[in-house]
Amino acid sequence: MSDGEPLIRWQWIGDHAAELADYTGIHLRLGLLPVLFGLIISVPLGILCHRYRWLYPPVLTVANILYSIPSLALFMIFVRYTGLTERTVMIPLTIYTLSVLVPNVVDGLASVPEPVRLAATAMGFGAIRRVVQVELPIAVPVVIAGVRVAAVSSISLVAVGQLIGQGGLGYYITRGLQLDFPTPIITAIVLIMLLALATDALLVLAQRLLTPWSRNKVTAS
Amino acid sequence: MIRFDAVSKNYPNGTTAVDELSLELAEGGLTVLVGPSGCGKTTTLRMVNRMVEPTAGTVSLRGQDIREVNAPELRRGIGYVIQHAGLFPHRTILDNIATVPLLLGWSRKKARARAAELLELVGLPSEMAKRYPNQLSGGQQQRVGVARALGADPPVLLMDEPFSAVDPIVRAELQAEFIRLQKELHKTIVFVTHDIDEAIKLGDKIAVFRTGGKLAQFDTPERLLADPADDFVADFVGHDRGIRRLSFVNAADVPLRDGPVLAATSPVASARTGDEPWVLVVDDGRRPLGWAAVADLPESGTLADVPLAPLGHTFSLVGDSARAALDSALLSPARLAVGVDAHGAVVGVADAHELSAGTGGTADATRADGGKR
Amino acid sequence: MNDFLNQIRLVGDWLTSSKQWHGDDGIPHRLLEHLTYSGLSLLFAAVIGLTLGLLVGHTGRGAFAVASVANLARAVPTFGLVVLVVTLAGLSTTPVLVALVALAVPPILINTFEGVRGVDPATRDAARGVGMTEWEVLARVEVPMALPLILLGLRVAAIQVVATATVAAYPGLGGLGRFIVDGLSRNDYELVIGGSTVVVVLALVVQVAFTALRRAVVSPGLRVSPSKS
Q1: How does A67-93 read in b/e, with b if 16+ C-beta sit within 10 Å?
Q2: Can you state the percent helix, strand and coil of chain C, rounding each to 5?
Q3: CATH architecture of the domain formed by B251-372
Q4: pLDDT (tens digit, 9 = 90+) per residue, A43-87?
Q5: Which residues cross the membrane (chain C) (predicted)?
Q6: Which of C79, C187, C204 to mutate to probe the A interface, most A CBs <10 Å?
Q7: Which sequence spans correspond to the domains of chain B?
Q8: Of chain B residues 48-87, which have a CB less than 8 A from chain C?
Q9: Cβ of C51 under 8 Å from any chain A Cβ?
Q10: Is A105 an 8 Å CB contact of chain C?
Q11: CATH of A10-212 among 1.10.10.10, 2.60.40.2890, 1.10.3720.10, 3.20.20.70
């Protein structure tokens, strides 16, 4: 950083407000769609793992191993197939969410009290209806706790995608380095954190609305 | 042995857990602290090993103010058993039991040898030594909890609802074993429970607490049942205390009558002479064989040829309590208790009504040891 | 499928070419750099995170602060932080290491804290009741019981450090990320995918190492499922 350069030039932020808003939108899409896809995969997978316990350890091991692969390396492996596109960022991010979401779906289903399960069966719920109408709703708080972790990590990881040209607000991070100019980097970091925390807050709210019966209880964190 | 001198425990939020408690617990005796939730019984117990520090007053152990002893050191000399056993899940059963000896600096070998001894003492098979707590049933865990408390052979044992987390059958089993153990070990035991039956079954003396941490009565079980200090205690010991008290009345004091007793060799006709619906058939040593229903008797022959209804239980005039006599009456098909002497010969019979009427006035009846321990 | 086989062949060629095994640009040197960054930051982070986590977990004081820090830390874009540090402090190892440590502390801290906090109060009560000093309660009961979570925290931190150290090649640091970043700027796909493979292998080794560590140090009593309840 050149001498005399202030940490933040507010002027720059004002000048780039519209552009920042565009990139924020892209960033949200890149960060949150993977969580949605992750959920679409994890719910049925979690139900299967809950039902067939032998399936759970191998699934969890694979998810954990995939999670341990650094994002940069995983992006590069997909570049070959999906090019320098948004998909190349979103597929690895989707894969990462599984290591949080699958266990939380399984734990959530396991948190359904046995008497409730038995009562539902005794009242004549079929296996699928019981899962959908009784067990999943009860599992919602635990599942959302997982979604919160996945969403926050996903949003903050998007920035790495800038190394293949698809990083949302990460654009300003590389830009700042190239220009030796900290303002865009700091702005990007702060915006990314705000996005993550706002998403987290919205998910807490969503959980309250979805599970009015647990409103007076402490939510899982 | 353990002495509470005007001990109070107040919390900053204004609640009083224990209020001006003065109490002296005898050496080698089992004192039960009993009362409803929030009566301060557990707080009182926990003040003995300084898990809770009193706000006023002194607790002393063998004449020494316990505040003069470093808390961990004090605790290593006092056994401690709690409701869910509180075993260390990451340690094997043997190492759980060896905890205190190891804390005291015994060698691992010596501590484990001691632990193996204790495992046997509490009636667990030695192959359990290598297992972990969550591989054991609740009752087994509780036995390990007792064994762990006995680790360094402490003279004092504190037990906080040790048997209340297990089912009634296991609880009765644990209580019986515990009584056997205490007979052997003669520890000074402070035992907290909310269950008055347990208190009466186990205690040499019982301290009844009322809400707000006040001692309502401190007495022997017999006195507590016969002469409750006030309405609270009377209510707490229950409306059926009359029946409970029978446990403390000797069976020998039960009024018996001769009743319809006939030898097996008697002709059937002799059974019909009385107006009793059942006759007790005995052998030539007057030992009871069973009951014969008069209405079902054949036209002729002797009572030996008649099918007999089982006796149920008899009670012995030597060693049994009046409570056993009552059970005997309730379980008999004829609704009559059969009392036998030391040789098993029938002395007489009584029905439930006669039993309670006949023993009701004897508040200071002698203790029936056989019925209790 | 064919393409996949091609890719494997590509990686094979790259890995076996002798120039990858010598000099400053060789795999051994880059791997050593990577392990040094990751190892050092993990070590410092562990010292800080474990100490604080045990302290807060045992005393229960500062629990809210710990939870907030952990929540906030998860939202920090690690890539941005590393780039910012380099922009502000210039390209040298120490500032980047400090950033890596800062990122690795929260998962260790929160998991250690939760592990200790999660010890059944009855067990803790029993530990004090049998005469353990506070130190003994911590060392003989709380730490062994918290080990599964402590190891989880260390594993998450290690994974994050290894990944972030890879990204740190972008602003100019060494390590395995160099292959990927250099390959990208030179349009040398062989280099990119070869470097990625080495990174993946390292990640797997870390994962396996923690699984083995868990097997070795966590008491079987904490693993076995209750046979009766």
Answers
A1: bbbbbbbbbbbbbbeeeeebebbbbbb
A2: 80, 0, 20
A3: Roll (3.10)
A4: 999 999 999 999 999 999 999 989 988 888 899 888 888 888 999
A5: 40-59, 79-105, 149-171, 191-213
A6: C79
A7: 2-248, 251-372
A8: 49, 51, 72-78, 80, 82-87
A9: no
A10: no
A11: 1.10.3720.10
